Amino acid sequence: MSWARVVAARLCRLFDHKRFERELDEEVRFHLQMQIEDNLKAGMNPAAARNAALRSFGGIEPMKEIYRERRAFPVVETTVQDLRYAVRTLGKNLGFTTTAVAVLALAIGVNTAMFSVLNAVLLRPLPYKSPDQLVMLWSQNPDRNPREGRTAYWNVEQWRRQSGSFAAMAFFDSASATLTTADRADKISVLRTSPDLFPLLGVQPSQGRVFTAREAEQRERLALISHRFWLSRFGGSLEAIGASIQLDGAPSRIIGILPADFSFGDEDVWEPYTMYPDWDAVRRARGAGFWAVIGRLRPHVTIEQAQEEMDAIARRLDGQLPSAQRNLGIRVAPLSLHVVGTRPRLALWMLAGAVFLVLLIAATNVASLSLARSATREREMAIRAALGASRTRIVRQLLAESLTLAVVAGLLGLLVACAGIRLILAFKPGNLTRLNQVSLDPQVLACALALCLLAGILVGVAPAMAMARRDPGSYGRTGGRGIAGGAATLRTRRALVVTEFALAVILLVGAGLLLRSLWSVQNVDVGFRPKRVLSVSLAPPASTGAAQRSAFYRLVLEQVESVSGVESAGITSELFLSGSAPQAVIAEGDIQPVSERSQFRSDELSKGLFKAIGTPLLRGRFFTDADGPDSPPVALINEAMARQTWPGRDPVGRRFKVGSEDPGSPWFTVVGVVGDMRRQGLEKEPIPQMFQPLAQNPPRRAILLVRTSMADPLSIADAVQAAARRVDKYVPVYGVTTLESQLDAFLTERRFQTWLLIGFSVTAMLIAAIGIYGLIQYTITMRTHEIGIRIAVGAQTGEIFRMIVLEGLQLSLTGLMLGLVGALCLGHVGSSLLFGVTPTDPLTFVTVSLLLTAVGAAACCVPARRAIKIEPVEALRQE
Amino acid sequence: MKSVRTDKTDVLQGTLILLVLQTLETLGPLHGYGIARRIEQISRDVLQLNQGTLYPALLRMEQEGWISSRWGASDKNRRARFYSITAAGRRQLAKATEDWKRMSSTIERFLVIDPARLEEEGA
Known about the structure:
The complex is a heterodimer. By secondary structure, chain A is α+β, with helices and mostly antiparallel strands. Chain A folds into 5 domains: 2-72, no CATH class; 73-130 and 343-484, no CATH class; 142-327, no CATH class; 490-526 and 740-879, no CATH class; 540-731, no CATH class. Helix content of chain A is 53%, strand content 15%. Chain A has 28 helices and 22 strands. In chain B, helix 2 (13-27) crosses helix 4 (54-64) and helix 2 (13-27) crosses helix 5 (87-112). Chain B has helices at 2-6, 13-27, 32-42, 54-64, 87-112, 115-122; strands spanning 30-31, 67-73, 79-85. Chain B has one domain (2-122): Winged helix-like DNA-binding domain superfamily/Winged helix DNA-binding domain (Arc Repressor Mutant, subunit A, Orthogonal Bundle), CATH 1.10.10. The chains are: A alpha+beta, B alpha+beta.
């Protein structure tokens, strides 16, 4: 165990540094003295005796170095020494240090903040038992269905029965229900689920129990509540278990409370899946439906294997489906992909990549700065080399300096990151799930540390290599001016500046494309006039019949229209859509095959709705009071439907059917065509839509849209709500907002991405500009003598100005070219994030090129103007 | 100066340790200068020690626990550091001596073998 003893001995030595040095000195002096005395005895004269003694001893200082290294832990020792020295030198050079630290801190901070978002949203595993095994199963028609199509009950049952890849399979659907208490009614969201969802996710109620499969089948009205709901409604009292709540007008018994850290969607109440009023119809439905299906793969079963099995099952089931539901495939996808969709994923990775480029640019810039500085430090390095510092030691010294810089910058960067995270949270970018879990956790801190080290190495490597390449012997020869080694350094710095520019161009092009997309989205025609329109949600009790609901809506409209400031009002079952089921539309007298189904949407609305929101009538008429429950079914259709169902013909007066050819289903007569509305968000093309009169099919919940004469429609929100409550005190009136802010919400995510990327790329551009400025300034300092002579022999100032600016422009143009090529190559990767603009948009590319050329030129002009003011005499005197 | 040094043998690290241990074993506690002189004398100046290199070696041996040191007065009443061999040092000396002998006899054999004789044996 001799190494252990050595380590112990060395550890002891770490602490008595001074005594050790003194003793070593003393020992060496004693040795030399003895030798000298012996030499004198041998008859040498004193000078010769001394020289001989020194000669036979060998180099004292190198020996001491070896001795010291062996004494304790040389790495620790010299590192401490390097660091101490680094802090001292950096402290002496405050200008450089502040710039470098500021640039790096900004870059590291922004990167850390971005990573914390990435970590919370994408990287951190989902909070369930073995989340890797969890998958979603979707029904999809390869031609027309959305990729994440939901499924009917019968199909889910068959899947469960026939598949062997899954340890468990559960299904759920979220619905909204009216919760009535003594004094008010609220809308809450409930999750209707099969009972096996809870064991599948690995969650147990913190109090009480889960309903059983038997209870679910017998349609017992049971409920589990969220921790949040428990606290807000029952104050965390255990009396909640067994208590009863009124949901949609009927009592449900609470049997369990879910743990605080459980989150699965945003629901407050979980009910058995059989709680649909029309359960029997739901049970019988086949094909596409409204159940989302989640499965847990058996151990060692891959998603591909499960997919293969489900493909086979889908083929087997196809023959048993109604003809309109044929050709339905099954897609197995990781749950994580459902939690955060592909597009936000791509956007996040793109932003992370962009911000990493900013870090690279910042590090490159600081590297360039420190290269310049190292050129002026040659004399210092020469002295250190002469005193016995090895090349590795000098390189290590330089790396220690850059790492010190990076660590200081990293600490400040953490502050920047905290601020950044706050900013991001304040911005609430769209509907990114799990964003609220963003925090500075150990992973994020580890990432910050890694970024620090990376930055430190990036910054230190270039000057260290420049130093290491040089022959130590040449240090002395360059004299005091410290610039002779500059040629190689200058080449490296030029390359660095070109890199900075290229990276900045890539970022700017990306930002430009996103900005153009944002403009396109903002200027898209939504199909209605959203200004000054108030939006309120209403939900009459579920138990009321169609006639009562219809009357309720009519009375509400009457009351609301009498409020002062209201110009017109309308009611619709839904305005903005999160999804739509595919449906077959059969036009009368058409031989179009029934399987010809497509995205379709049907809504009910009051006669004044289109007037209230400002959607134009293109043909025919709006609904009238005559379109009542007893008159023949009529419909308004949108342009998209007119185009698809009756291409080139006038649809007014024609009849059509929705869904099956079942003789019982009604024929609708088209009375008019309205303009298309973008109801699925601003970026999706309008789908075919039909509208029925409210009186003929009154919905269970509705949205009241009120056009006001107020600049701020919210100012009469209270009056409108009161008007609705005058009709029925217990009707939930909720979700008060304006149409404009709803539209604006569609833009938040895109706007967030765009402005973030613009911020990153402008930062990058500024850093690149500083880089080129510094470089030109440096070359001028180096060439002061030459410029002085040129002026002295009669060069025009214009010529000199041109010479310098051209040199800078040459660099920025090279960077620009490389960057444009890079942007063209990277363009297609993010093309799905663009809207209304191609990844090779010439306008963006030209604008970015002009902008960067201008910035590059401006950055060169400042030092160039200083150069032409050089006094020849001054310049020559510098020699 | 460089040329002078090359024709004398530079003392290898491991050998130096063996020499130092043997010296301390024979002569008892000794200061660095004494050790250096003794090695040079015994080797009749064939092993030209670059005396400075002795001290890092002494430090290492002390860390290994083969020798110990204490400050004392030299014959001319100067303060000097005296090194003495420890029990562990004696064991190490025995082991190193054994190793050395084995090694040198092996090399010896190589050197005395006459290639001609090898061929004869092979035939």
